[in-house]
Amino acid sequence: MNILIAGSGGIGGVCASQLLAAGQPVTVYSTNKEIAATVNRDGFRLVGVDRPIPGKIVTALPEERFDYVILATQPPQVEEAARELAPLLSQRGALVCLQNGLCEDRLERIAPGRVIGAIVGWGASMPAPGVYEQTAPGGFTLGRMDGRADARVEELARLLAPVGDCDITENLAGKRWSKLALNCAISSLGAIGGDRVGELMQIRSVRRLALEIMTEVVEVARVEGVRLEKVSGTLDLDWVALSAEERRSTGSPSLLAKHSLLLAVGFRYRRMRSSMLSALERGRPPAVDFLNGEIVTRGAARGVATPVNAAVQQMVWEIARGERASSVESLRELFGRTKALRP
User: Fold this and answer.
1) Are 76 and 290 in contact (CB under 8 A)?
2) Is 102 in contact with 180 (CB distance < 8 Å)?
3) How many angstroms separate the CA atoms of 213 and 275, rounded?
């Protein structure tokens, strides 16, 4: 198979490194000339692997056609990348969406019937140009948002096996929405707090914010008719969502159990650092409009109040505009802002 990976950040770099190490030819396309020059000189350097992995990154559009174009950009760049790269698909080629959020819906408008969703269940970072680290274990969940069977999905699962185990689902929408709920909390709060997930989840007010954020996502998903699936086979968002009684409470046994679960999530992903935080630090647009902003927009259309997600979206943009810094103090202020807005 002829594979193109678009994007040379943490996720794209780890995918490319693992596939190349397994002997799968891969073309990596990136507009970042610094990363390209470093990799083209030194190879892909994967933390935990003693030797560099030979490979190249191209900065000009390739001329050949590809069976799979794997989009490993941040959500704000994914539609532009898809428009640029869709013409490079072979006759039966497919765009593969790795982005958090609900980007498959956007890509279907660009390449109808040719989009495969791939939920990434692991974390990655790029601590230095051309240096990649997998920061949390996991694999992929593959499928189509319309639930239809597609032979290309099974083929893609075999191709991605060197990177991680692949599950195929007929309810990608349910899994995508559940992952969206987690990302709206973990990624956005990580961007505001400026620290790794494990550290932030030790703070009770941060855990409460996470629960409120996920509750609003679940409420919107239910109104949209989405059948939510467990995240990583264990995190049941229907159970995590706060009841009306729990939202008024500060210390019920059920609320304590949910706080304990978030502590466990924080421990599992303790090394993970928000990709949105990395984007802010590099001066790039944050993906918050594709996460919390998506919930605010869809909630407004469905008559579902989402004040906590709206406050998160606003604060992330305050940080992006340089009006405040990513810090635990910002999270504490967010908690105070939203306290009166919560039921």
Assistant:
1) yes
2) yes
3) 18
Residue 302 pLDDT > 80: yes
The answer to whether the CB of 192 falls within 8 A of the CB of 334 is yes
Q: Write out the two tokens for 163.
A: 């990177």
Q: What are the start-end ranges of the H helices in the chain?
A: 10-21, 33-42, 75-85, 103-108, 151-160, 172-193, 197-200, 204-223, 237-240, 244-248, 253-268, 275-281, 292-302, 307-320, 328-339
Residue 343 predicted with pLDDT over 70: no
pLDDT, tens digit, 9 for 90 and up, residues 207-245? 999 999 999 999 999 999 999 998 766 789 999 999 988
| DSSP reduced 3-state for 275 | helix
Q: Chain centroid to CA 330: how far?
A: 22
Tokens coding 340 = 């009166």
Residue-level pLDDT at 233? 64
- List Cβ neighbours of 334 (8 Å cut-off, separation of 6 or more): 192, 209, 311, 312, 315
**Minimal CA–CA distance to 240: which of 165, 314, 297, 184?**
184
pLDDT at 265: 83
CB distance 201 to 271 below 8 Å: no
In order of 9, 65, 71, the CA distances from 87 in angstroms are 23, 8, 14
Q: What is the tens place of the pLDDT at every residue in 81-125?
A: 999 999 999 999 999 999 999 999 999 999 999 999 999 988 899
Tokens for 278, please give them: 């990395």
Say what the pLDDT of residue 232 is. Answer: 66
Distance CA 100, CA 190 (A): 15
DSSP string, 55-92: --EESS--SS-EEEEEE-S-HHHHHHHHHHHGGGEEEE
- Please give the average per-residue pLDDT across 53-80, as a whole number: 96
Name which of 301, 333, 298 is nearest 314 in CA terms.
333
Give the pTM.
Answer: 0.88
**Dist. CA 298–CA 110, nearest whole Å:** 21
